[in-house]
Amino acid sequence: MADDSTAAISKVQMDDGVQLNVKILGEDSMHTKPLLIALHGAPGLSTLAEPVESFGFLSDRFRVLVYDARGSGDSDSIGPFDPDRWTKDIENLRMWASADKFVLAGGSYGAFVALDYAVRHGDRLCGLILRAGWTVGKVGSMTAVANILKSKRVKPDAARQVRLWSGTLHSDKDFEDAIMEILPIYSPPRVSSSDDQSESADFKGTLIFHSKIQNTAFGENMPRFDVRNQLQDIKAPTLVLVGRHDYATPVSGSKEIADGIPNSRLEIFENSGHSPSSDVPERSREVVSYFVKVRGLSKRSPKANGDAT
Questions:
Q1: Which spans of this chain does the record mark as coiled coil (predicted)?
Q2: CATH no. for residue 260?
Q3: In this predicted structure, what is the pLDDT of residue 178?
Q4: What is the side-by-side order of every strand in the sheet holding 19-25?
Q5: How many domains are there within the chain?
Q6: Which of 201, 218, 235 marks a domain boundary?
Q7: Which of 31, 42, 124, 273 has a CA positioned 20 to 30 A from the CA of residue 99?
Q8: Does some domain include residue 305?
Q9: Angle at 197 between CA 192 and CA 199, to 5 degrees
Q10: What pLDDT score was predicted for residue 18?
Q11: Per residue in 150-167, pLDDT tens?
Q12: 116 and 233 co-located in one domain
C-alpha cells in the first residue's frame, strides 16, 4: 500500500462558492491512474478520515479522492445540505480531478449519497462500492431506532435516540449525547467486555457535532429517500458490504440493495459491525481488492473532455 500520510490538503471551490476540504491519495501528475471518490458517513460529524481508513489502501492503483462533505470537518458549513447539492459537489470534484468516469464508494450515510448519485449520473460510474445502507429512509431510520433500543449492549435514552434518527435534535450537545451513548453498538460483540468500545471508522479523529446538518440529513432528506424502483437502472458493477452485527444498517437493507442492482455482489462480514474496515481490516481489504481486480476497474483511466470547475 502506498504511503500517502503527507498528501496535501486542497481547498476546492464548488460552483456556489463553498470551499471543500479535499485530499487525493496516490495522486500522479499525468493522471495515469483512474479516479475513485470515497464518501464519508455521519453528516455533521464524520470527516475524510473515515474513507482514508476504508479506501486509502487502494492509492497504489487509484487516485483516491476523499473530502469533508459540506457541513463536516474543515469544509464550509454553508448549505443547502440536500441530495441535489451533495450530488453537484461530487460532480464538481469529478471535473476538478479531470475524470470522465470514476469509481464511487460510500459508507453509511455516504452510501445514501452514492446511491443518489448513481441513479442520477450512472453513466459517469465504472464501479460502485456501498457499505452499510438501506433503500428506504423512513423504514431504515425506524429500524435503526428499534434495533438500538432492544440491544442489550447499550441503555440509551429512548427519546433522544428518536430525535437523533428523526432529525429533531435540540442542540449540538443533544447530538453528542445521542452518539456517545450508543458507540458500542457500532462494533461487533467482543469476547471481553473491555474490548467492546473499539472505534468505528465513522468516528475516527476529533469529533465535532453539528446538529443542524444531522437534522437536515435525517429530518428532511431521509423521509424522501427511496431508491427501490431505481436500483434496476444502476448498470455499474457494484459491491455491497455489510457487517453481520450492524444494528444501524442491518444485513436486510444491504441485501435489498444487492438484489435490486443487476450487476452486484453482496459481501457479509460475519465478525463485523457497522464498519468492516475497522473490525476486520484484512478481510475488508481483500474483498474490495478482489472486486477491483476482477472488474478491471484499476486498469481504466478515462479523462474529462471539459475544463475543471
A1: none
A2: 3.40.50.1820
A3: 98
A4: 9-13, 19-25, 63-68, 35-39, 102-107, 125-131, 238-243, 264-269
A5: 2
A6: 218
A7: 42
A8: no
A9: 130
A10: 98
A11: 999 999 999 999 999 999
A12: yes
Inter-axis angle of helices 109-120 and 83-96, nearest 10: 80
* Domain assignment of residue 196, yes or no: yes
Place of cell 470527516: 47
Cβ of 147: how many Cβ atoms within 10 Å?
Answer: 15
Q: Are residues 111 and 202 in the same domain?
A: no
152 burial type by CB count under 10 A (0-12 exposed, 13-18 middle, 19+ buried)? exposed
The residue range of the domain holding 202 is: 139-218
DSSP run (H or E) holding 129: strand 125-131
Same domain, 122 and 228: yes
Read off the pTM: 0.92
Grid coordinates belonging to 120 = 442520477
Q: Measured between alpha carbons, how far is residue 243 from residues 28, 109, 251 in Å?
A: 34, 15, 7
Does 268 fall in a domain? yes
39-79 confidence digits (pLDDT tens): 999 999 999 999 999 999 999 999 999 999 999 999 999 99
Residue 3 lies in a domain: no
List b or e across 113-133, with b for residues whose CB sees 16 or more CB atoms inside 10 angstroms.
Answer: bbbbbbbbeeebbbbbbbbbb
Q: How far apart are CA 263 and CA 235, in angstroms?
A: 7
Alpha carbons within 13 angstroms on the beta-carbon side of residue 282 total 0
Q: Which of 132, 35, 20 is nearest to 73 (CA)?
A: 20
CB 50 within 8 A of CB 44: no
DSSP state, residue 205: S
And the C-alpha cell for 217?
440529513
